[in-house]
Amino acid sequence: xxxxxxxxxxxxxxxxxxxxxxxxxxxxxxxxxxxxxxxxxxxxxxxxxxxxxxxxxxxxxxxxxxxxxxxxxxxxxxxxxxxxxxxxxxxxxxxxxxxxxxxxxxxxxxxxxxxxxxxxxxxxxxxxxxxxxxxxxxxxxxxxxxxxxxxxxxxxxxxxxxxxxxxxxxxxxxxxxxxxxxxxxxxxxxxxxxxxxxxxxxxxxxxxxxxxxxxxxxxxxxxxxxxxxxxxxxxxxxxxxxxxxxxxxxxxxxxxxxxxxxxxxxxxxxxxxxxxxxxxxxxxxxxxxxxxxxxxxxxxxxxxxxxxxxxxxxxxxxxxxxxxx
Length: 325
Description:
Order of helices and strands: HEHEHEHEEHEHEHHEHEHHEH
Structural class: alpha/beta
Largest sheet: 6 strands, mixed
Strand content: 15-25%
Shape: globular
Helix content: 40-55%
Strand order of the largest sheet: 2-1-3-9-4-10
Number of strands: 10
Distance between the termini: 59 Å
Number of helices: 12
């Protein structure tokens, strides 16, 4: 009897030792970073830069897999329902909130293991170069006086990050969140082209996405929805500078993993992502493309996601887009 018990202890100990060794060996094969947008997009550029840094940091290849479509839902789902083994990661965007509140998915931000936010791009209030609105105040005054829907905006998906950001701006100034009529577009560039041609009145996309048309003298930004001026665009004032309203909003990218990731793997992965995000090479990359550096990790990231999740639910309710209670 004793010998049987002793043998069981040895087997259990061996199994635990093997499990610990296997876990400690992570990673021992290639890692896939899933991104929900096309090659060449802002999310794709960030994903590839992050993958390159992680490959060097972790010592294994980290490849980017583009699964575009449905405003990121396909890619986000692949991560939410992925194996929690540390070999499938996702560069997730705020569209997880809109998909949840519109009942397009059965999961929320809680369906992921939070690793780290690696970028944040503020929305901006863009108008055509020859727009009669010379300042943000003039634009908001005109919108306030007009019937809701008189003026239009494009360059974003309905219920997407930039749509929610501009709705927040309108609400902060006492306007209806649906005062601007959304004209959906497949990405920022078609929206900017429509703005430059005078087909819409506003684009809420980031400064870096409209930079080329601005250099061509076709469009101009009236304000950026950030806490402080962006280093790449020091001449563009924040909303707070202009009228004292602490309005900020836009999109972000965060590395998230499937739910149930082992704590030791999560910890090591978080440390690696943070190290890459803090590197001078990565920061220079963000600066060059006009992306915003805003790292947030672990439990702090989870709290931020929870707050933003509730905010999106409230705003989407006012926009008439919320379908989930």
